[in-house]
Structure formats: structure tokens, C-alpha cells
Specification:
globular, disordered C terminus, eight-stranded mixed sheet, four-stranded antiparallel sheet
């Protein structure tokens, strides 16, 4: 075929001949990518894209995502905002930072975790800064688990679905240990112990809990740590809601326990400081026996993949951790606790559902089996009829429940409760009517013919 002077370079083979117009083959994506799915985002998108609606013009009320900034009622500390503004104006935060984080920022996090009274000493070298807590989780799981070694990881059920997403992406076997609803969602210690074997790479503990709203006592955490040490399995401690404990409750960091077992604690500023969009988290290595020395090296190598998180927020971090005072956070916590009590008491008046009183965090699990045992259908119908977005418990591994977030303003929460009651009363009435009709039909069928 003669060469065409108007053909582009990509249209020519190496001999200058025009290539036949052939459709390009389908490109197959990586299996690890196709295993990855964010179940919460998928559910919310599926609910809100529903084409059926009987909402009567109602505004959408979202009680689904754990973003404390959604409604604007919880406002970031001026001191935190000023710290970031100062970092921007300083002109020193525009370049690359070390992949493990700025030394000053790592020092600030280490100081934050130090507890000399309990013998907890954290060095800056024990801290790696990450692009949010979710990135810290991904790095930690990736460093601890070798899928080629046929290993497994223990995750909580109910649990935050991102844990499963990360484990599935890595390609490791997931074993879920149950949380006991009759004991304020504490870990079933016997089940945890029995699920472990020589191939168990890590146990993931989430405290305070998302989605359960539970807060573990120091004694319960010690029991978990004892099993970890006995079984020689390190702990990944998701402590992003550290400090979110309501009145009369307290829960220590896992790295501060008397039982010394290897712990990689993950945290960040997104929840406590109300800035999830700033994307700064960290992981802290607690390793009294130096059992994680090779894992530490692996984590440092993994940190080079993104060449470090946001340099501006890293620069501001020492001021944020030092200057944002505890009274400000206690004010935020008081609002959340008041909201939790208000919603809990209100839900007690609604037929067919049963809520668990939260002990902390910003979440609550609600048993909806008395209205509809299919929580996916419940959530879909609730959105279609009342324009309320809640997350089905199936997403968290607890069918028959839904998770709601109580960080919205009080008037929004009360409007949501009113709509929820209207929906539940209508649904339970319909079920009662259907049951009565079925009983009537059965009676007529069993009556003798006259």
C-alpha cells in the first residue's frame, strides 16, 4: 500500500506503510483493581439514583457519610485554619517533603502519643505521615500481609467496609470475628482466639467503633492485647475516633496498655479536627520487642509511593496539635453527645425499630427488622418515600440494621426522626393489614362449605 502523506505517525508502521484500520483489542485491567470497591459510595450512589419517588417535594437528609462538615454546624477551629494559612504564607511549604513526613510534624505526632506515666515513649522515627487515615490503613495492611504466603487477616464484624476493601485489594483471606451486641459490641474473645492460626498476619481493632458507636474499656483492650501476644499476632489499631468518648467513658490508646504487644496505631486529623478534606493521617509503631523492625522498613518503602502527603498541612501540624485546645474539642464532643441522646430517645418512640445508645464516635446502629428484615430494601424505600439516606447494615456485615450519623444539626435530626416515624408506622401498618388479610384468607379457605 502506498504511503499517505496525510497519515499521522500512529497510522504508519515502521516501513512507512499505512496500517489497516483495525479495532484495537480490549485491554484487560489488573485483577487487584477489579477486586476494589468502595461499598459505602456505591450504596449511596445506588440509593440516590433511584427513579421511583413518593417524596412529596421533601429535601434530602443525608445521615450516611461520616463527614462532620456536611451540614456546616460543626466548624473547624480558627487556630487550625490559621495554622494552615500561616504555612501557606510562609512560602516554605511548597516543595516536596520527605516521604515519611517532615521531621517537625513527626515530632509533633510522637509528642501527642507520649505518655511517660504509662511508660509510653514514641520517637519521631516511629511515626510515618500519610495521606489520611485510610492511606495509613492501606500501607499497614500491605506491609504486614503477604498474599503469596496464603495468609489471613482478622477484621471486625460489624466493621467499617474499607477494611474489607483494602484486604480484598491486597488479595488476602479475610476472617471476620464477631462483635457481641449484648455486650455493647465488645469483641467475642473466644471467637477471636479460635479464628487465628499460624497464617494469621494481623488483627484489626477499631476503637471507638464505626459503625457501632461503642467504646472499649481498658480491661477489654488488655484482654485483646493478651490474646495478640499469646498468639504472636500484631495488632492494627484504627484509632481515628480516639477521644470521642461520651460522659463517664474513657478508652486508652492500644499502644499505652500494660500488655506490650506489637501495635501499629493509625490516626489523623480528619475527625477530631473536623478536616477530612485536608488528607493528613499517620501511623505510629509501638514495638517494645523490636518484632516489627522489618515491617518498619517495608512501611518506609511504601511511603515513597506517593512521595509524602500534603506538605502545607504537614507544616501546620505542630501548631494544630499544640494550639487547638481541649475545650474546643470538648465543645464539639458535647454537641455530638447531645445529638446522640436526642436521637436515641426519639427513636425509642418509633415502632418496629430498636437503637443501641452510642458510647462515642458519631454513629449509631439501628435494628430495623421489626419494620423490614431486608435492610437494603428498608434503606431504598426510606429514601424513595422520605428522602432520608441511611446505610444498610449489610454493608458493615450486620444485616437487619442501618447505620445513621448524628453529626447533623438538631433540627435536621428531628426532621429525620419525624420522617422515619412516618415511614415505619406506615410500613408496620401495611404489614399488619397484610397479615390480617392473610389470616382472613386462611380462615375462609379452612371454613366448611355451606
Amino acid at each position: 500500500m502506498a504511503s499517505d502523506k496525510y497519515a499521522t505517525f500512529n497510522d504508519l508502521d515502521l516501513n512507512g506503510e499505512v496500517i489497516e484500520d483495525v479495532e484495537f483489542r480490549e485491554v484487560i485491567p489488573a485483577l487487584s483493581a477489579m477486586r476494589t470497591s468502595n461499598k459505602i459510595r456505591e450504596i449511596v450512589e445506588a440509593l440516590t439514583s433511584s427513579k421511583t419517588s413518593n417524596d412529596q417535594g421533601k429535601e434530602v437528609i443525608s445521615l450516611s457519610l461520616g463527614d462532620p462538615t456536611t451540614y456546616g454546624n460543626l466548624v473547624v477551629s480558627e487556630k487550625a485554619a490559621r495554622a494552615v494559612a500561616d504555612a501557606v504564607m510562609s512560602g516554605i511549604a511548597n516543595g516536596y517533603a520527605p516521604s515519611t513526613g517532615l521531621k517537625t510534624a513527626r515530632e509533633a505526632v510522637a509528642k501527642f502519643y507520649m505518655d511517660p506515666k504509662k511508660g509510653v515513649h514514641v520517637e519521631p522515627e516511629d511515626v510515618i505521615l500519610t495521606s489520611g487515615c485510610s492511606h495509613a490503613l492501606q500501607m499497614t495492611v500491605t506491609a504486614l500481609v503477604d498474599p503469596s504466603g496464603n495468609q489471613n487477616i482478622l477484621l471486625p464484624r460489624p466493621g467499617f467496609p474499607l477494611y474489607n476493601t483494602i484486604a480484598e485489594h491486597v488479595g488476602v483471606e479475610i476472617r471476620e470475628y464477631p462483635l457481641d451486641p449484648d455486650r455493647d459490641w465488645e469483641v467475642d474473645l473466644d471467637a477471636l482466639d479460635q479464628l487465628m492460626d499460624s497464617r494469621t498476619a494481623a488483627i484489626l481493632i477499631n476503637n471507638p467503633s464505626n459503625p457501632c458507636g461503642s467504646v472499649y474499656s481498658e480491661r477489654h483492650l488488655e484482654e485483646i492485647a493478651s490474646i495478640s501476644r499469646k498468639r504472636q499476632v500484631p495488632i492494627i489499631a484504627d484509632e481515628i475516633y480516639n477521644g470521642f468518648c461520651f460522659t463517664g467513658l474513657d478508652s486508652p490508646l492500644m499502644g499505652s496498655l500494660r500488655v506490650k504487644t506489637p501495635v501499629i496505631s493509625v490516626g489523623g486529623i480528619s475527625k477530631k479536627y473536623l478536616v477530612p478534606g485536608w488528607r493528613l493521617g499517620w501511623l505510629v509503631i509501638h514495638d517494645a520487642d523490636n518484632a516489627l523492625k522489618k515491617v518498619r522498613m517495608a512501611l518506609e518503602r511504601l511511603a515513597t509511593l506517593i512521595v509524602g502527603p500534603n506538605s502545607i498541612v504537614q507544616t501546620a501540624l505542630p501548631k494544630i496539635l499544640a494550639n487547638v485546645d481541649e475545650p474546643w474539642f470538648q465543645g464539639i464532643l458535647s454537641i455530638l453527645e447531645d445529638n446522640a441522646s436526642l436521637v436515641y430517645e426519639r427513636l425509642k418512640l418509633i415502632p418496629g425499630i430498636k437503637a443501641d445508645r452510642p458510647q462515642g464516635s458519631m454513629f449509631m446502629l439501628v435494628n430495623v427488622r421489626g419494620v423490614n428484615p431486608d435492610d437494603l430494601t428498608f434503606a431504598r424505600d426510606l429514601f424513595d418515600r422520605q428522602r432520608i439516606i441511611v446505610l444498610p447494615g449489610t454493608v458493615f456485615g450486620v444485616p437487619g440494621f442501618v447505620r445513621i450519623t448524628f453529626s447533623a444539626p438538631k433540627h435536621v435530626l428531628m426532621e429525620a426522626c419525624d420522617r422515619l416515624q412516618e415511614y415505619c408506622e406506615g410500613s408496620t401498618s401495611a404489614q399488619t393489614h397484610d397479615a390480617e388479610m392473610n389470616d382472613s384468607e386462611c380462615s375462609s379457605l379452612s371454613s366448611p362449605l355451606t
